Amino acid sequence: MSVVCYGGSVLAVAKHVNARVKSSILYEDVATAIDGGRDAKDAGANELLGCGKNGGQMGVAANLTNPLYSTKAHKDSGAKPEGIIIKLVKAPPPSA
Q1: If both were cysteines, with which of 1, 29, 62, 74 could 14 make a disulfide (CB 3.0 to 4.6 Å apart)?
Q2: Euclidean distance between CA atoms 42 and 50, whole angstroms
Q3: Cα distance between residue 11 and residue 7, in whole Å
């Protein structure tokens, strides 16, 4: 997963840490790992934007109360909501 809006911006890179596990994480969980989520009580303490440690990376924790993880399609896929690390890096400038 990578999205680059313009050079000099931040690039979010996802790393699958265990090739033996089929992983599946919701974009909402990735966003929460980056910014703490809508209802973060400890903003800046437990998410990538505020931590300034671990080399700008952290594991994505799945919100297992989200009903999408309970759908038949998700269960039938055999995927597990684990094993994804998000790293924020400076995006390269666009080529001319």
Answers
A1: 1
A2: 10
A3: 9
Q: Which helix (H) or strand (E) holds 13?
A: strand 10-16
Cα angle 64, 69, 70 (rounded to 5 degrees) comes to: 105
71-74's contacts with Cβ under 8 Å and 24+ in sequence apart are: 74/24
Task: Compute CA distances 52 → 34, 44, 94, whole Å.
Answer: 12, 9, 26
Q: What is the pLDDT of residues 13-72, one digit of tens each?
A: 899 999 999 999 999 998 888 877 777 666 555 667 666 555 678 889 899 999 999 999
Is the Cβ–Cβ distance between 22 and 82 less than 8 Å?
no
